Structure formats: structure tokens, C-alpha cells
Amino acid sequence: MLTAIIPKLPMRNKNATIDYYINQLGFTEIGNYEGYLMLQKEHIEIHFFEFKDLDPKTNYGQVYIRVNDIESLYESLLANKTEIHPNGSLTTKPWGQKEFSLLDPDTNLLTFGERI
């Protein structure tokens, strides 16, 4: 009986991760432990594990987040001066999704998508 999936992404600096996800993306902290962080926004929960030696140039952490009203979310992030991935502006994809992407401070790729 599966009920949810919670991605676990690497982080080098907990304070930088907290700053980005809370101040840029609007998440709230729901758990903060030695080497581990738990954040939530609405029904989405993401966990982070400390990986101080992570090379962001070789990090392949990725999360796909389904959303409603993607255009409003995109505009709110632009208004908050959140940097959009250079190749990830809001576009309609051939697989029936409207998507955009962000890179967090550790280059974890966050892709937001809405069915069209």
C-alpha cells in the first residue's frame, strides 16, 4: 500500500539549502537534525542529507514536481527573483506537460510540471 514518495537530495551546506528553499521557494522546515533536513511546501516534502564533499558539477540529483496553475507559480518565482535554469524556462513539452526547471545551490534539478 504505497502512500507517498519523498525524494532525498544531497546538500553541502544546510544553511544555504534552508535559505534557498525557504526564502526562494516558500518551503517550511519540518525537521532539522545532524546531517539531515526535512522541508515541506503544501503536499510536497523533500529531505536532504549532508554530503560535504559533493561536487556540484557532477551532481545528478533530480526531482519532478507536479503542480496546478504552473503559470502562477512560475510568475511568482520570477517576481521573487528566483533564477530559472538556463535551459528550463516555461515551455510546453511534446509529452503533454507544461514545465520549467530550477537548480538549487547544489545543482539538484527541480522540474515543475502541469498536465495540459
TrEMBL record:
<dbReference type="Pfam" id="PF00903">
    <property type="entry name" value="Glyoxalase"/>
</dbReference>
<dbReference type="InterPro" id="IPR029068">
    <property type="entry name" value="Glyas_Bleomycin-R_OHBP_Dase"/>
</dbReference>
<dbReference type="InterPro" id="IPR004360">
    <property type="entry name" value="Glyas_Fos-R_dOase_dom"/>
</dbReference>
<dbReference type="InterPro" id="IPR037523">
    <property type="entry name" value="VOC_core"/>
</dbReference>
<comment type="similarity">
    <text>Belongs to the bleomycin resistance protein family.</text>
</comment>
<keyword id="KW-0046">Antibiotic resistance</keyword>
<dbReference type="InterPro" id="IPR000335">
    <property type="entry name" value="Bleomycin-R"/>
</dbReference>
<feature type="domain" description="VOC">
    <location>
        <begin position="1"/>
        <end position="115"/>
    </location>
</feature>
<dbReference type="GO" id="GO:0046677">
    <property type="term" value="P:response to antibiotic"/>
</dbReference>
<protein>
    <recommendedName>
        <fullName>Bleomycin resistance protein</fullName>
    </recommendedName>
</protein>
